Amino acid sequence: MADRRRRKPKRWVRTVTTDSTHPPKGLFTKDARTIARTLASKRVSPKGPGSGMRMLTYFINRGGRGLSKSRREELERAKRLLSERVRRERAGRTTASSG
Questions:
Q1: Nearest Cα to 52, choosing from 96, 22, 8, 89?
Q2: Cα 12 to Cα 99: distance, rounded to the nearest angstrom
Q3: CA 85/CA 7 separation, integer angstroms
Q4: Three-state DSSP class for 80?
Q5: Which helix (H) or strand (E) holds 73?
Q6: Residues 52 and 44: beta-carbon distance below 8 Å
Q7: How far is the C-alpha of 44 from the C-alpha of 20, rounded, in Å?
Q8: Which of the residues 3, 16, 42, 43 has the least number of beta carbons within 10 Å of its own beta carbon?
């Protein structure tokens, strides 16, 4: 018969493998504007706000059900602010390069 051992549930990775940039400690406990502004900065995201967006998305996914409703809402608001910034940056790049 087939081996019927119970499989352990898959766990998220504990550490991110790339260790190039880090958001400041406690950043994700602040308000949405501060989170978006900090993640868009060159100091935290040298490759631009898109990199900050990935950090934020990773944090939200990693938090899962452990995030309170109010914290999740604030993080989602930060995500919207950051995505607007990414959109503006991309639009600015295309208009500057087409001239």
A1: 22
A2: 46
A3: 43
A4: helix
A5: helix 69-98
A6: yes
A7: 9
A8: 3
For 3: left if phi > 0, alpha if psi spans -120 to 50, otherwise beta; the answer is beta
Q: How far apart are CA 80 and CA 75, in angstroms?
A: 9
Helix, strand, coil % in the chain, rounded to nearest 5: 60, 0, 40
Which pair of tokens denotes residue 66?
């452990």
| Local confidence pLDDT in tens for the 99 residues of the chain | 555 667 666 666 666 555 567 788 999 999 999 999 999 998 888 888 888 999 999 999 988 889 999 999 999 999 999 999 888 888 887 766 655
Q: Please work out, in degrees rounded to the nearest 5, the angle formed at the alpha carbon of residue 23 by the alpha carbons of 41 and 72.
A: 100
Give the list of residues 6+ apart from residue 74 with CB closer than 8 angstroms, or none: 31, 32, 35
